[in-house]
Amino acid sequence: MSAEATNPEAHPEARPELRRRGRTRLDLRRLGRAALLGPTSRDRLPDAIGHVAEAHRAHHPDADLSILRRAYLLAETSHRGQMRKSGEPYITHPLAVTLILAELGAETTTLTASLLHDTVEDTDVTLDQVRTEFGDEVCFIVDGVTKVEKIDYGAAAEPETFRKMLVATGNDVRVMSIKLADRLHNMRTLGVMRPEKQARIAKVTRDVLIPLAERLGVQALKTELEDLVFAILHPEEYESTRALIAAHAGERDPLPAIADSVRAVLRDAGIAAEVQVRPRHFVSVHRIARTRGELRGSDFGRILVLVGENADCYGVLGELHTCFTPVISEFKDFIATPKFNLYQSLHTAVATPEGYVAEVIVRTRQMHRVAEAGVVALGNPYATATPDTAATATPDTAATATADAATDPDEERVDPTRPGWLSRLLDWQQSAPDPDTFWTVLRAELAQDREITVFRDDGSATGTISLPAGASCIDAAYAQHGEAAHGCIGARVNGRLTSLSSPLSDGDTVQLLLAQDASSGPAAEWLDHARTPAARIAISSWLESHPDRAMAPTSAARAPLSVVGARGGGANAVADLPGATVRLAGCCTPVPPDAVAGFLVRGGAVTVHRIHCAAVAQMGAVGRTSVAVHWRATADCRVTLLAESFGRPHLLADLTEAIAREGVEVVSATVEPPVEQRVRHTYTLQLPDAAGLPALMRAMRDVPGVYDVRRA
After folding, report:
1. Is the predicted pLDDT of residue 592 greater than 90, yes or no?
2. Reduced to 3 states, what is the DSSP secondary structure of residue 502?
3. Are 464 and 573 in contact (CB under 8 A)?
4. What whole-number distance in Å separates Cα of residue 521 and Cα of residue 514?
5. What pLDDT, on the 0 to 100 scale, is given for residue 387?
6. Which of 30, 180, 278, 688 is such that its CA lies 20 to 30 A from the CA of 401?
7. What is the mean pLDDT of residues 26-38?
8. In 3-state terms, what secondary structure has residue 118?
């Protein structure tokens, strides 16, 4: 972008040619792999926009090219006199970026904005002019890819530029499509820069742009960016990989013969399919070499099978696994379970009689288009097409409908297909006003290369939450409840109680339990289990604003809290042994009308157990004397209950109040130290009527934070 624009005075050798022949033009067809293998010839084009129009018409035969010609004329006029550091007229850059997008199948609005993407940043053209000439839609995209002024932001200009682009991408993913194509062309021509600047740009590309290309599914751009970054940051490994590929080129490649065999199998099965051999790119070969060691001929590429319908994909899979020896561990079904970046395919590997193992990818042609171009292949997802016209709407008519909708200032521009990772990013960036924090956390977020989807169940609604792989219940809490998650006291995963630190898996159902007390806050150890930036920023902010809570000693150091009632009470059990002292066993705490058994113990006392208590068998085994016992006619009784809960302030007071409302006296209470935010309470209670025990236990379970109450 503007870093490439220079004053013509800096290139005096280019000026005579400019005067003699007019503006020079670059053959923009030098795309892809060839850019890695060295310079190519620069042929002049009779019509600078011709290749763009030709590529665009290949995907959109009915496209109106007049707007592209107008955009080119404005871009060429405004950039006239500017030169790139490579010595080429600057207009070659927007033309190259636009051709990259046209080859991927971008619609007309995207190409128009691409031609103009540097005009506002590097020339006297204003956004108002762009809006007047080309409409709100093009203006919005151009504004989205325009850098912030370095004079205003200083060292923070780069992170703030990416923040601006990402926010704009949240409303229109075509902003990032143009940015990715822009970076690809700049990376192709990066050789004119100083080595240190090449390395800096390559690192940003590796840490931010390549992960974004992966998330948006634009594999065609991602793979080439990977190779270009690889060549700059790891030149020795790049050269060894290049030599490895060159050596393989002189050997017999088994993949064409395997592809012929696959064609024959599918032809005999009556399945119409196109079979191709797809060479691996440099980084892919390097990764395979590190994993497998010495490479064989079939490791340098994969076989791609393209069919018409989804059902044909599984038909092809069945034929391959029947006629070849399948490598079951290599099978992956990304059609039934697509990747979070829209990718769909069947992956498998088969062994041939000659001993080669070939990886095979099976997909429909539409899947292939999306796999290569990602969101670029989806056209305009913001058009308001009706159900009747949606099936026949072209990307260009969709763009027109979007432009009309965008003119309503009260209507928010929302992408209903916005991926979960982008929504999370847009949420947490609002809480990261510091550019350094934003830049650091952005790279960490984009380093997460997988995503999971969990289902939430809060009792009133069921929905989904998208999280990075490895996320915990803490991350789910902040994703669903925002700052209200400070009061989260526990979670149920797939119906089972679990700690907040528990990691989640794809497809889990999560029920998050929140405290009623507004003063509740997160524990410092939550940061050890939070994976999402939104959760980490929210927890850190709360702890910074509550230093007394952040520095509080851990609960494990506290001794159990005991509360003892005013009177001990007497047992309601009577033993058929005159003068014997009767004690109710603490292991099973029998109460009327439980069936009970008594045993004589040392000191002449009789202990009373429920008949199903494990101690009954043990007493008999050691020869304890059995004593008949029965309950007195009075209905009052003493019972010991265990209450399991999540830790929160005032929980003991709330439980005691619930017990008192039932007319029950607390004889004693013990609260154990919390373990992973869970607390155990032990209550010995005197009930006026044993029949009220079920109601008492229900009342205790209804206290917020309590998840289980049972007899000891």
Report:
1. no
2. coil
3. no
4. 11
5. 35
6. 180
7. 35
8. coil
- CA 530 – CA 542 distance, rounded (Å): 14
Rounded to whole angstroms, the Cα distance separating 460 from 222 reads: 42
Active site residue 121: yes
In tens, the pLDDT along 459-492 reads 544 577 878 888 898 888 888 888 888 888 778 8
Catalytic residue among 121, 457, 644, 689: 121
Cis-peptide, bond into residue 593, ω within 30° of zero: yes
Could you tell me which residue, 268 or 22, shows the higher pLDDT? 268
Question: Is 114 strand, coil or helix?
Answer: helix
Q: Where are the alpha helices (DSSP H) in 304-375?
A: 310-323, 365-373
Is the pTM here over 0.70, yes or no?
no
Mean pLDDT, to the nearest integer, of 50-70? 89
**CA distance linking residue 374 with residue 343, whole number of Å:** 8
Token digits of residue 577: 């042994």
Which amino acid, one-letter code, is at 108? T
Is residue 408 part of the annotated active site? The answer reads no
pLDDT of 565 > 60? The answer is: no
The conformation of residue 209, written as its DSSP 8-state character, comes to I
SS3 state of residue 20 = helix
Instruction: Say what the pLDDT of residue 449 is.
Output: 64
At residue 391, the pLDDT reads 34
Average pLDDT, the chain: 77
The reported pLDDT for the residue numbered 353 is 86
**DSSP code of 77?**
H
Distance CA 40, CA 188 (A): 12
First to last CA, the chain: 72
Which residue's structure tokens are 């240190």? 196
What is the full DSSP assignment across 505-573?
A: -TT-EEEEEE-S-TT----GGGGGT--SHHHHHHHHHHHHH-HHHHTSPPGGGSPPEEEE-S------E
According to DSSP, the β-strands at 346-351 and 325-326 are antiparallel
What's the pLDDT band for 278 if we cut at 50, 70, 90? very high
DSSP 634-675: ---EEEEEEEEEE--TTHHHHHHHHHHHTT-EEEEEEEPPPB
Q: Helix, strand or coil for residue 276?
A: strand
Both tokens of residue 548?
């007394």
CA dihedral of residues 45, 46, 51, 54 (deg, nearest 10): -160
Rounded to an integer, what distance in angstroms lies between the CA atom of residue 675 and that of residue 263?
Answer: 62
Range from 155-169, 181-195, 540-554 carrying the lowest mean pLDDT: 540-554
Which tokens is 75 given? 């871009």
Q: Which of 71-85, 339-353, 523-537 has the weakest average pLDDT?
A: 523-537
> Per-residue DSSP letters for 586-604?
TTT---TT--EEEEE-GGG
Residue of 4, 107, 118, 122 marked active site: 122
As a whole number of angstroms, the distance between CA 259 and CA 441 comes to 45
| Rounded to 5°, angle at Cα 521 from 517 and 522 | 140
Sequence-distant (6+) residues with CB within 8 A of 388 are none
Which helix H or strand E contains 256, and what residues bound it?
A: helix 255-268
CA distance 486 to 353: 61
Cα-based torsion angle of the residue sequence 199, 202, 203, 208 in order, rounded to the nearest 10 degrees: 160
Q: Which residue type occupies 367?
A: M
